[in-house]
Structures are given as structure tokens and as C-alpha cells.
């Protein structure tokens, strides 16, 4: 028997046989393509099984049409039924998967698979399904028995049920994408149903079996719908990967050896590295973390808090970072790794610095304002009392400033204050503080003076600096300054 099946002299490959076999091969390739395109998802797997059943049917029918002997044709008839009997079950599974209700109707799918298996066993072990063969102008064709009639009723009922399910889902479709997806499947199954006319020939009606054309069109439309609308399952693994890559924040996962195992796009951008440069690399060679964020026991107790620090990226650019860490644990509670979540807070830090400067520094001159002056004064008096040294306070009020401000305008007055500030700061030590108290009033704190006369020396330097004429807006003007001195602890 096997020798006869393999002997090409027993076949006459007509256009009918070749067409059916070529379509069967194309259908198999199409199923493999969708499976690969969908990265092995559930919908890709079910579609591949469906195309596998269809390709078995079409290729076997092609060999049946080409057979020159009836016994040989009967073998291919029964072999083809192995694919045909499972087409209803796989079509139903594909439908429930496409409408994302496979879990809800798992029992119905299993029942359909069981019935298809029983029909398949009937084909293999009895003659109740395929009882013989007709011979038409295109070749041999199966003749159904009572079990075949029962299968046909099951097949047609299931196809009507599938079509109705698509229609009901289409009517309640909430979004345009889902409705387009279901519309495509309604068109596909509507064309695919034309293949049902092939069953007329099993009852002696010599209607040419053009079902291979309808089935091919149906499968190609279905494949296009699947690929176009990305009917992949949102598994925990897929969702985790998508969340990791799209979340606003850098994520780095390390093992117990502090080797980087997972890193998302934001972390790569933040550190300035390519993924290949980072994976399996010791994290400490990239960034230096405090011990609290590397201590497994402390992390497991969840006593850690967020840390703020400054890091350098690959190019040496300094960035302010907020870091938090969480342990990855097994079911027994043992730590197997650590997840670090990082946020670039450079902009926030700059904003805080700007706010702090506005709160503590004079916006015109850049000198400490009254708030910062009293804070520093309190600290210096405490140190002076503890260390028993002298602190001098110089209170300065500019002379003739109001006249210049009124005659030349506020803009000239502002420029004069800024230039006066530069002269005053250059006349004192770096350890001394000059603050603007308001208007043209300033205070200088000489943090530590050896003798009281040193305060007078500083005052004379300031007076000399401010007595020199100022060039403001192309003209010269002169001011003076009155200075009162107070000494602590005297």
C-alpha cells in the first residue's frame, strides 16, 4: 500500500489536483507567517492550527483528485477527513479567541474538540463516515455514510453559531477598532461559508468543489485582520514588558551579584548607555549607591526610604537623581534581586534653587536679603560666644542716592546699586557677609576681627570705594556712604 502511495505512476496531476495542493501549501505557509508575526501568541497558535487542518484537507484532496486507483483515492479521502473533522473545533476556538472570550467559553471549546476527535476516530476505525467514492470529471470524491451526515449537521450548526456570535459582538462593539476587526471577520467567514457547497458532491451532486478558493480567500482575510489589528493576548509578560518600557521613570533590575539583568529605555537615556553596554555589568561601575539601597535585609524589612543624590552619566554630565529600591523575593521570602526606580530630578532641583534664591537673596544685587542676614547673624553670634571672638556689624546707608534715583530714573538707580554692590564686596573678605536690607541700606558682618580697629579699616575701604565716581548710562555721578559700627560682645 505504501509503495503504491509513493509511486508517481499511480497519479495523474491534473490542474484540479495541482490547484488544490498549491492552495494547501500556501495556507500552511500563511499560518506559519501569522504565528511568527504574532510572536507565538494564543491567537497566532489557534490560527496556525486552523490553517494546518485546512492544509491537510486541501493537499490530501489534491492527491485524491490525482489518484488513478479507487483504493488509493480512499486512503487520501480518509486522510483528508483528519483535517476536515477538526476544522469546526479550530474555527470555534479561533472565533472565541478573536473576540477575547476564550476563557469564558472554555467548556464549549473543549466540547467541540471532543466531538471532532470522536468524528476523527470514526473516520479511522469505521466505514460509517466515508463509505466509498464517487468519480467525477475532476477525480475521485468521498461518499458520506451516516456518521458523515451527522458530522455535516454538526459542521453546519457550528458555522451558523460562529457567524451569529460575530454579528452579536459586532453590534455591541464599543470602539471603532474592535468593530473593524469584527467586520473583517464577518466578511471572511461569509466568504468561507461558500466552501460548504463542496459537501453537495459527497451526496452525488456533481458540483465542482471550489471550496479551496473560498477557503483560501477566507484565511487570507483572517490573517490580514489578525496582523493589522494586532490581536495578541495581553499576557502578564507582555504587559510587564510594555509597562517597563513606557513608564515615566528609569528601572534597573539587578541580581544578588549586583549584575544588571533588566533595564528600560528611560534608564538607558538617563545614563547615556546602549543596552548591550549595560546588561550583565556590575551596577557599581555605572553608579554608586549608598549601602542602605544595597542591603538585602534592610530592603526586605522595607525600612528604606527614597534617596536623592548626584550621579554622572557616561559623558560626565552631572544629574540629580531620586532613587528607591525594592527587593525581588521568591515564594519562601528569600531575596533574589533588587529593583531600582530612578527619577531625574535635575529640573526640580534647579527650580528649588531658584525658589531658595528668591526667598533668601535680593533679586537686584544678588546679595543675601534680610531673612538670610538674620539667619547668618544668629549663627555667627553663637560661634562668637562659644569661641570668644569679636564680630563687627557695619550698617551702611548711601548718601545722595535718592537724588540720583529721582533725577536719572529708577533704571539708573538700579544700575548704581549693582555697581556699588560690586565695589563693597571687593572691599571685604570672602568670609564676611554683605546683605541688602532694603532701598539703599546695607549691612556688612565681619565674621571675626582681631581687634576693634579692624572694623574701622573695613569701613574706610568701603567709604573709599563708594566715593569714587560712578559711570551710569554714559554720565558720571557720585555718592557717599554713612556707616555705623557695632561690636560683639562689647
Could you characterize what this model shows?
With about 500 residues, the chain is α+β, with helices and mostly antiparallel strands. It has 18 helices and 13 strands. It has a five-stranded antiparallel sheet. A four-stranded antiparallel sheet has the order 9-10-8-13, sandwiched between helices. Strand 11 and strand 12 form a beta hairpin. The longest helix has 26 residues, at about 145-170.
Condensed summary:
The protein has 490 residues and is of the alpha+beta class.
Q: Give the overall silhouette.
A: rod-shaped
Supply the helix-strand structural class. Answer: alpha+beta
What is Rg? 44 Å
Q: Measure the end-to-end span.
A: 124 Å
How are the strands of the biggest sheet laid out side by side?
A: 4-3-7-6-5
What proportion strand?
15-25%
Q: What is the number of E strands? A: 13
List the total number of helices: 18
- The proportion of residues forming helix, as a percent range, comes to 40-55%
The largest β sheet comes out as:
5 strands, antiparallel
Q: Please tell me the overall pLDDT.
A: 86
**Are there runs of 5+ residues with pLDDT below 50, and where?**
none
Amino acid at each position: 500500500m505504501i509503495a503504491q502511495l509513493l509511486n508517481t505512476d499511480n497519479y495523474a496531476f491534473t490542474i484540479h489536483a495541482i490547484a488544490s495542493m498549491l492552495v494547501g501549501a500556501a495556507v500552511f505557509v500563511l499560518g506559519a507567517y501569522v504565528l511568527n508575526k504574532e510572536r507565538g501568541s494564543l491567537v497566532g497558535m489557534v490560527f496556525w492550527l486552523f490553517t494546518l487542518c485546512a492544509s491537510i484537507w486541501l493537499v490530501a484532496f489534491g492527491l485524491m483528485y490525482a489518484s488513478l486507483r479507487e483504493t488509493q483515492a480512499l486512503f487520501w479521502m480518509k486522510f483528508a477527513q483528519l483535517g476536515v473533522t477538526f476544522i469546526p473545533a479550530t474555527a470555534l476556538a479561533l472565533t472565541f479567541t478573536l473576540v477575547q472570550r476564550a476563557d469564558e467559553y472554555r467548556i464549549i471549546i473543549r466540547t467541540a474538540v471532543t466531538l471532532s476527535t470522536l468524528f476523527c476516530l470514526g473516520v479511522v476505525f469505521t466505514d460509517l463516515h466515508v463509505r466509498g467514492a464517487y468519480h467525477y470529471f475532476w477525480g475521485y470524491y468521498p461518499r458520506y455514510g451516516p456518521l458523515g451526515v451527522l458530522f455535516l449537521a454538526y459542521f453546519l450548526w457550528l458555522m451558523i453559531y460562529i457567524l451569529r456570535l460575530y454579528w452579536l459582538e459586532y453590534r455591541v462593539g464599543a470602539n471603532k477598532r474592535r468593530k473593524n476587526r469584527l467586520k473583517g471577520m464577518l466578511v471572511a467567514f461569509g466568504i468561507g461559508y461558500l466552501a460548504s457547497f463542496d459537501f453537495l458532491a459527497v451526496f452525488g451532486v456533481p458540483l465542482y468543489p471550489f471550496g479551496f478558493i473560498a477557503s483560501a480567500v477566507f484565511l487570507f482575510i483572517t490573517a490580514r485582520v489578525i496582523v493589522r489589528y494586532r490581536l495578541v493576548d495581553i499576557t502578564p509578560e507582555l504587559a510587564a514588558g510594555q509597562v517597563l518600557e513606557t513608564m515615566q521613570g528609569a528601572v534597573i533590575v539587578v541580581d544578588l551579584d549586583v549584575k544588571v539583568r533588566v533595564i528600560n529605555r528611560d534608564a538607558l537615556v538617563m545614563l547615556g548607555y546602549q543596552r548591550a553596554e549595560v546588561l550583565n555589568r556590575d551596577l557599581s561601575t555605572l553608579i554608586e549607591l549608598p549601602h542602605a539601597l544595597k542591603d538585602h535585609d534592610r530592603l526586605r524589612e522595607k525600612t528604606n526610604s527614597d534617596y536623592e543624590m548626584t550621579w554622572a552619566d557616561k559623558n560626565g554630565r552631572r544629574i540629580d537623581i531620586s532613587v528607591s529600591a525594592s527587593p525581588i523575593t521568591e515564594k519562601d521570602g528569600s531575596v533574589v534581586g533588587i529593583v531600582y526606580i530612578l527619577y531625574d530630578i535635575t529640573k526640580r532641583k534647579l527650580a528649588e534653587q531658584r525658589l531658595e534664591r528668591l526667598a533668601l537673596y535680593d533679586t537686584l544685587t544678588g546679595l543675601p536679603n534680610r531673612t538670610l542676614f538674620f539667619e547668618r547673624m544668629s549663627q555667627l553670634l553663637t560661634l562668637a560666644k562659644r569661641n570668644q571672638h569679636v564680630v563687627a556689624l557695619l550698617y551702611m546707608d548711601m548718601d545722595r542716592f535718592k537724588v540720583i534715583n529721582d533725577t536719572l530714573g529708577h533704571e539708573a538707580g538700579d544700575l548704581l546699586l549693582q555697581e556699588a554692590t560690586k565695589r563693597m564686596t571687593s572691599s571685604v573678605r570672602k568670609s564676611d557677609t554683605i546683605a541688602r536690607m532694603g532701598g539703599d541700606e546695607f549691612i556688612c558682618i565681619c565674621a571675626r576681627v582681631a581687634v576693634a580697629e579692624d572694623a574701622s579699616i573695613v569701613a574706610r575701604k568701603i567709604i573709599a570705594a563708594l566715593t569714587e565716581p560712578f559711570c551710569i548710562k554714559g554720565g558720571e555721578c557720585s555718592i557717599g556712604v554713612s556707616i555705623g559700627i557695632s561690636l560683639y560682645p562689647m
